[in-house]
Write a structure and sequence with these properties.
- The protein contains ten helices and no strands.
- By secondary structure, it is an all-alpha fold.
- Helix 4 (about 65-85) packs across helix 7 and helix 4 (about 65-85) packs antiparallel against helix 8 (about 175-200).
Length: about 240
């Protein structure tokens, strides 16, 4: 298992496409935040001005659409590239257990998402801090708020990875995995925002709100849903035909 993880991390380290993705995402994130800062100056009535800390504490929501697109692109191409390229099949011919292959790949995906996560977190925080000040001092409370922001990003990242992992083994296509991963996330977001108008039965509405909740609404359900998606992906992976 350790050698598998090392092999996946080495593949990630040598990937030119992955490095290009980080660079492109960094440039886009700078452009987006500079545009937001400009709008806050020109149209302050309609665009809020954040300190660095205020932006960071809200970034897991405001930056999530773009961040989710980047994570889904990375996960879809990194996982499904091995399915399309029959790399998984070669590993099986070498006698490597499917379970080990699956979890080694997932660990590599999570490691690969970490730099993307820091690009999302730090770019906006630094730029807004330059514009409106950091809005923080060095205290225990600040450390707690930073830890909270980091934990939210980690949970959101794991949720995105679980979506991509599930659809990777179901669709077996790079583009298909991205479309289904992002599409279902968008649909659930719309449903969460309008569920009270769609469902007129109060009890049923409350049940669906719990089932569709994110971490800031219901942490327990959120974690269980991630676990179930990963277990389902692993189950399907162990029974896939790679030929």
């Amino acid at each position: 298992m350790r050698n598998l993880i090392r092999a996946e991390l080495f593949k990630l380290k040598k990937s030119t496409a992955y490095k290009a993705l980080i660079l492109i995402y960094f440039i886009i994130e700078i452009a987006v935040q500079m545009n937001n800062i400009s709008n806050s100056v020109v149209y302050p009535k309609y665009n809020p001005t954040y300190t660095g800390m205020e932006w960071l504490m809200n970034s897991h929501q405001t930056a999530m659409p773009l961040y989710s697109i980047v994570v889904f692109l990375f996960a879809a191409f990194f996982v499904n590239g091995d399915i399309v390229g029959h790399t998984f099949h070669i590993g099986l011919l070498c006698g490597i257990p499917r379970k080990n292959i699956f979890w080694a790949k997932l660990i590599a995906v999570f490691v690969g998402v970490i730099p993307l996560m820091f690009v999302s977190m730090l770019t906006g925080t630094v730029l807004w801090s330059i514009h409106a000040g950091p809005g923080m001092d060095f205290s225990a409370g600040t450390v707690l708020r930073l830890a909270t922001a980091f934990a939210r990003y980690v949970l959101s990242s794991v949720m995105l990875i679980s979506n991509a992992a599930l659809f990777s083994v179901i669709v077996k296509s790079k583009i298909g995995t991205f479309v289904w991963s992002f599409g279902t996330l968008y649909i659930l977001g719309v449903l969460r925002a309008n569920i009270e108008r769609i469902i007129q039965i109060p009890i049923l509405c409350e049940i669906l709100l719990i089932l569709l909740s994110l971490s800031y609404l219901n942490l327990g359900t959120f974690l269980v849903s991630i676990l179930l998606k990963l277990l389902a992906a692993g189950y399907i992976f162990e029974r896939m035909d790679f030929k």
